[in-house]
Amino acid sequence: MNAWIRIAAATAVAGAALLGCGKKDEGAPASGASGPAATASPASGDVILIGHVAPLSGGDAHLGKDNENGARLAADEINAAGGVKVGGKVYRVEILGEDDKSDPKEGTLAAQKLVDAGVVGVVGHLNSGSSIPASKIYADADVVQISPSSTAVKYTDQGFKTTFRVVANDRQQGTAMANYAIDGMKAKTVAIVDDRTAYGQGLVDVVQGVVKGRGVTVVAREFTDDKASDFSAILTKIRATKPDVIIYGGMDDTAGPMAKQLHQLGIKAPMMAGDGACSPEFIKLAGDGADMLTCSRAGEAVEHLPRGEQFVAKYKAKFGSDVQVYAPYAYDAVYVIVDAIRRAGSLDRKAIVAAVAATDYDGLTGHIDFDPKGDLKNGAISMYHVQDGKLNYLSTTR
Amino acid sequence: MSSFDTLLQQVFNGLVLGSLYALIALGYTMVYGIVNLINFAHGDVLMIGALTALSAITLAHGLLPALPGWGLLVVGMLAAMPACVLLSLVIERVAYRPLRHAPRLAPLITAIGVSILLQTVAMIIWGRNHLSYPQLLPADPIDIGPATVTATKLLVIALSAVVMVALLILVQRTRLGRAMRATAENPRVASLMGVNPNAVIAATFAIGAALAAIAGVMYASVYSVAHFYMGFIPGLKAFTAAVLGGIGNIPGAMLGGILLGLIEALGAGYIGDLTGGVFGSNYQDVFAFIVLCGVLILRPSGLLGERVADRA
What we know:
Chain A is an alpha/beta fold and 398 residues long. Chain A has helices spanning 2-32, 61-80, 104-117, 128-140, 153-157, 170-184, 198-213, 232-241, 252-264, 280-286, 308-319, 327-344, 349-357; strands spanning 47-54, 84-86, 89-99, 121-124, 144-147, 163-165, 189-194, 217-223, 245-249, 271-273, 293-297, 361-363, 366-368, 381-387, 390-397. In chain A, the strands form 3 sheets. Chain A has a 7-stranded mixed β-sheet with strand order 8-7-9-10-11-14-15, sandwiched between helices. Chain A has a 6-stranded mixed β-sheet with strand order 2-3-1-4-5-6, with helices on both faces. A two-stranded antiparallel ribbon of chain A has the order 12-13.
């Protein structure tokens, strides 16, 4: 018996070691990818720390990694070009990456951790549900927060001076989706499903308001959650109502299996989703059901940006994977913060916030300046359609 | 489409989900029946099964591209079942057997620890992204009368029915089954009668793990995704199903699983209509747990549970 207890203890120790490895694994790319001088201690005074928060584990991990890669690419470029000069001293930019697991609670913890670590600004978070509660923490600490992907209307509606985003919001996105469903897809009836997150629900609430205002009937309003895998019950219910279009507010890890199950239930109505599901990952997960999707992104189409092709190629060469959705926006968000630091000529948090508010910057994703709320002025919504397993660009509205 | 057709479709959806729950619940209930342990790592054994099968399928597809989808599915099952059985035997030997005579809480906490360990190991091996599960059987909708089904879903129902019948025969008609029942009743007396309780308990874990492997491969095939924490939710639901049917009771686990699947599907489909739109499909889980509470209040030992919950 004693021998077995010893083995059990040994296993527990091995397990703890493995857990430790897992953590180290998360930290390794953080220091490894930030360039040759990554060994420099953040406290050594010649480093500007910029935080980045996105899910690096769980269902949205691929999107989170995509955003983080975008931010790292920008930091590496800035460092390669000689860093940032503030008050006669040259600083390197370092990205401090945190994982919020798409969870609002984890998001606030990550925010506090970054504030305590002394970041001058934060790029993130990815999910609106995580960005919204975290924005209070950043506001209290005067840390500027620029989200490259949170589109929920509420994010900038809270009235914080530190809250910005470099994508369009869901008022614009939901309106564009609703108009496209009616004008482009000739929908007379729609069924609406959401994943009960701040993003999913907020987006389709806007869609629902616009379609109802234009005389289209909402024949079903159903709910799932962001960790669900079985949608057959709600889809069967929707099938009986025969909608022209099924609109989903949620991310690609649920939208993909949902599209597949739509196909398996013999539903022919096309599906429509927002930016959370407008990714190559959706196509992978949806299988045979992918071709029925029309989706939107809250920004210019990458392939139509002047430097877009170049960015996609550079990204692929560096990280060995394709751009998912918002990496170009995370990339620009880092540049916006650095641009603000240069104009402010100081690393004072309040001065940086004021400088970001006055941004007038031509980035990869277009011209960036903010309205008083922190929303991107003149934000674009691009529509895409999946055909033969590829996302095809359709049109852009502003 | 008439409302009756929709009802039939919902019943079919519920049967598919319920069959999966039943397969997993059997593993919980068998182990509980014999050692009175709620094996919370069971859902993660299912996850390991699904991911091992995925690796085996990918490998087999690379080596033999001509192998048809059902052949790959068989390969996946054949890889997953021994892997899960082995894993489960190791877990039983290392984590549970030393604690068999310890207070009840100790093995329960160990089980939760094993669950976390398995998830972490799986995250290290297979990564943290959702993995797309290959389409092994044709996913094209087949119309059977008013209901639309797919080959994979039909296989789920057929497979669980076969497995359950086989399990009942095993427990009721074979030597091993008799030994299992004897050990469940009283391990000491059973060992006086020439039964080796350790072997019987190990066999129980092995059978439960094989069922979890089948369930894992089928679960991932039906929903076409696999990831390192995929075992958590089905594990929890199957545990609920086992309690609903009467934990420790094999037909109870089957009944509980099927019932829970039906409740979830019909709940999501009709709760809005029944309550005049006050509650929507967002209350589907609540609905399932209200039924569970009701059953446990009226019959604390579950629907088919014979023993009163004196040990709880």
